[in-house]
Amino acid sequence: MNPVRRWRDSSKPQRSELYLRWSLYLMALAPLPVALLINSSDQEVGREPASRVALVIGLALTLVTLRAYRTSLDHYLNRPTDHLRWLAVNGGIAVAGSWVLLLLGPRVGSAPGTEEVVFTHPITSTMLFSAFGPASVGLPPRRAALAGAAALLAVAPAMLLAGAAPGTTTGLLVGTGVAMIFIGCSCRSFAWLQSVVWELDAAREAQARLAVAEERLRFSRDLHDVMGRNLTTIALKSELAVQLARRGRPEAAEQMAEVQQIAQESQREVRDVIRGYRTAALHAEAVGARAVLRSADVACEINLGEDADELPASVQSVLGWVIREATTNVLRHSEAGRCSIRLHREAGRAVLELENDGVPAVPLPSQGGGTGLRGLRERLAAHDGELTVPDAGPGVFRLLASVPL
Length: 405
Known about the structure:
The chain is an alpha+beta fold. Helix content is 69%, strand content 10%. Keywords: Kinase, Membrane, Transferase, Transmembrane, Transmembrane helix, Two-component regulatory system.
């Protein structure tokens, strides 16, 4: 897939992960340029074989470190992965490669015991702290610190055997340890930041689901309040009518007549509840949309005009439903930063315009046969209205709902 198209088609959390993931991958390339620089330099004589070995080891470690970063980050984000195996391979290559380079590297010195490795020190240090990056992401901090310390201690004998002085060895190991701490904190912070992004995205999804659940709970509560008492009365009077009928009493017919009356009254009350639930007041829906969108960090601009209250009640109701459904679409199908709702009159019709940004470059569910806008079209059609979704440019979604006055 085209990288530009892939970036446009990704959501904000996916873009964030792509950016942070590749930031980690760039850290894995650290040993390669150092090895290339050493291999191309000819300041010291007699080190060509070792420099070629450094190039091969640096390339191998880079490839394995890339894989280790990928699996470690997946593990940190609670995805199935085999990160421990790759971390072990990565650490093994770093330590073994350091031994090979230290023992093969050239030495200079004026007296026995003063020889020091010339060019293998920088590549060895780079390999160690580069390999520590994936461990800091895939392991708990304490275990990662122990693994880093073990790698430094494992390389120390090779430095001494290569002729480095104890003071030089200690200084190099301390410097490498400081670099490992810096790299480890940076990589761990990247992984933590990405996990926070995904948690916030999940919280946003949960907020939308809770809003739907709260509305369903409100409707069920209203329906229970209306029907609970009436159904209880119907049950008691029906039982009483049965007992009276068994005894041949004429009052049974009166009780059943009351049951019929209560049932008809219940039917009327249920219709009132449903009618109230299905009625969307224009101003109330606009205020609710602003509150919901602002809670999701979406800047919302609403302009209904001064004569919105003069519109017929049926027009206000159907336009209120348009605002409600459009607000749901903004939260579910976009990464909007702003949203505007405008109402105006045009050629004897009330036109409601909604526009938001943050639309990914993929077909919107509403444009692919979604039930939300289809239901709005049916509601508008009952009032001789129409719903259109004109092209508003890349990343922008515009909806126009018009109803004759």
